[in-house]
Amino acid sequence: MVKDGKILFAKAGKDLSEPLYLLPKMANRHGFICGATGTGKTVTLKVLAESFSELGVPVFLSDVKGDLSGMIFAGEETEDMKNRIARFRLQEEGFAFQAFPAAYFDVFAEKGIPLRTTVSEMGPDLMAKVLKLNATQTEILNVVYKIADDENLLLTDTKDLKAILQYASENAKEFEADYGHIAKQSVSAIIRAIVAIEAEGGDRFFGEPGINAADFFATGEGGKGMINILDSSTLINKPRLYSTFMLYLLSELFEMLPEVGDPEKPRMVFFFDEAHLLFKNADDALMEKIGQVIRLIRSKGVGVFFITQSPKDIPDEIASQLGNKIEHGLRAYTPAERKALKAAAAAFRENPEFDTEELLSALGTGEAAVSMLDEKGIPGMVQHAFILPPQSRMGMITDGERDSAVKQSNLYLKYSTPVDPDSAYEFLERRKQQMELQEQKEEAAEAAEKEQEKAEKAAEKAREKAEREAEKAAERERKEAERRVKSVASTAAGSVGRELGHIFGGKLGGKFGKTLGGNIGASLGRNILGTLFRH
Question: What share of the chain is helix, strand, coil (3-state, %, to 5)?
Fold first, then answer.
């Protein structure tokens, strides 16, 4: 709850008379809420989120178990709540049950407004870190983004990215002069990494319409900041996608917001539940990126709180930037756990009234060791704190209540229906189909040309054959004609010769001479005619 412009979230002292505040102007110095399961982390997160909303500061938080969803309804005055209100003397503080404006989101569009972004908006550097690419693969991904940009190809979803990668690989020789060598092995490795992201639901996270981070800065009734609740009950089982979205959102805000230094209150506060998943499988490059964003985003007026079971879940380079610390009970049964407990206690500024290590191991539900930054940004001494109860409803809302709240939001109308624009995949598919059609036309034309040539050759061959047959027939006719002429001439020559022989033979030898002369004359006539035909 808010008192005198400060967030009253706990009380200390034996009689709970000492109020503990989180100063809004120090919220952008970040913080953490840690503790074993069942020690009260969720209630603490809820109390802080409600208070920021009451200050008019929008909040973004991930709801892993669903028990943060009840913020849209005022709390109920149960017997337990009456006792807690009396114990903390909250009536004197102006405590009142109240509802807070909330918007529900879900990457999978099952329990809230869909959350999406485009591959282009993600950018090659962050995408490479999310895909866990090595240096060479990262360079190639940057080249592929550049090719898409140069050729005006929109990268909306993962199928667009796979399409442009395949296109670049198939045309590597043509691109080499302008963009350098594009190794097919590296392209295949990148595509496999994309498929792994798709298997976790990334195909639903990347798409249009992409979320506009400015929509998280809405206010509700009475100027309360909107509490944007990301349902993570399914998302938490897909750690790569979970960390992808969280890191993208912080990076987007960092790019979008102008520098403000240390404002009187933050522009927005993030609560990342199960924060260990953000770091668990992160390589050095991704860790460096997370650390950079956390370090720099405070100057944009954005505060980040990590919620996890143990401070050791948060890498040292990140933990060193977290100024506001709320540590619920830690359980230490093994040597490793005792070592972690000792380290957690050492991270607090010592309080001479108690042993911090003993306190951390003995804290009950709803109690915490707390150190907040003061007006000068100096960590306060650790305090044994008792967290106040929330003002909104405890526990989950029903499916019907959630569905009604989701569909009443203007953001639901804006983001509920996915859009598949004419982007790189569609363009390259059309180009591929056009090229295949052109190849088919060329193949058909080539086949027709070959058939034409074949037909022409066949016709030429038939013509030549016909000519040869005609020549042979003409030759046979000529020879036959010669034979007939020769036969007739021979007969005629023989007759003429015989007549002449008869005449000359008769004169010389009588009847015998006539016969002999006829035979000789006929033979001479045929011989003379044969000699003439030969020449």
Answer: 60, 15, 30
User: 321 pLDDT band (50/70/90 cuts)?
Assistant: very high
Pairwise CA distance, residues 192 & 182, whole Å: 16
Could you tell me where in the chain the CATH 3.40.50.300 domains are found?
A: 2-116+211-416
pLDDT of amino acid 169: 95
Q: How far is CA 307 from CA 36, 226, 275, 388, 514, in A?
A: 11, 20, 6, 18, 152
Residue 518: predicted pLDDT: 58
Quick one: tokens of 422?
């004419």
Give the list of residues 6+ apart from residue 73 with CB closer than 8 angstroms, or none: 99, 392, 393, 397, 401
C-alpha neighbours within 13 Å on the C-beta side of residue 10: 29
pLDDT of 496 reads 56
Q: Can you give the pTM of this predicted structure? A: 0.80
- As a whole number, mean pLDDT of residues 419-430 equals 93
CB 13 within 8 A of CB 66: no
Coil/strand/helix, residue 209: coil
**What is the Cα–Cα distance from 441 to 68, expressed in whole angstroms?**
63
2-116+211-416: which CATH number, 3.90.1150.10, 3.40.50.10490, 1.20.1050.10, 3.40.50.300? 3.40.50.300
Each residue's pLDDT tens digit, 365-421: 999 999 999 999 999 999 999 999 999 998 899 999 999 999 999 999 999 999 999
Distances, alpha carbon 446 to alpha carbons 407, 413, 434, in Å: 60, 55, 18
Structure-token pair, residue 417? 């229906």
pLDDT at 482: 77
Residue that the structure tokens 């895909």 belong to: 131
